[in-house]
Amino acid sequence: MTAGPEGARHAAVELPDGSWWDWDVVSWNGGELRLGAGPDITYHHGLELVFSDPLFVVCPTAFMDPVFRAPTPDETLMITRQIGGTPPVLVAFEADAHGPEPASCLIAAEGLDIAEGVVGRHWRADLEPGARLAPWVRPPG
Q1: Can you spell out the DSSP letters for 53-82?
Q2: Is residue 29 part of a domain?
Q3: Which terminus of the chain has a smaller tally of CB atoms within 10 A, N or C?
Q4: Interior CA angle at 101 toward 110 and 74, to 5°?
């Protein structure tokens, strides 16, 4: 992603090499939206898009094969009107959300970090170095 006017980043997201076709919302609260991806996210995911201070989100909770692109001028104008200014980060993509047509997705946020690393989705005590558990995973008992 490249910087645009006033430091805004409104280009297509560039993902690191990998098999990132299966996606879902890992967590979402007022301060952060975290999307997880991998070739099969049943047991773990290996990539996260972490949006800090999300301002506007149109995105299904689970989707596949996203195609990231630069937001259109109309999308940028709509977001600018919705939030009262140009967001620092604006990400647009189409994805398979199991409907008859691709879902159009748009996320405006204060920041975006792309993180790689194994994130387990089920309890296990023997995590490898650098691996972690998803925020909802708790030890048994």
Answers
A1: EEEEEE--SEEEEEEEEPPPHHHHHHHHHH
A2: yes
A3: C
A4: 40
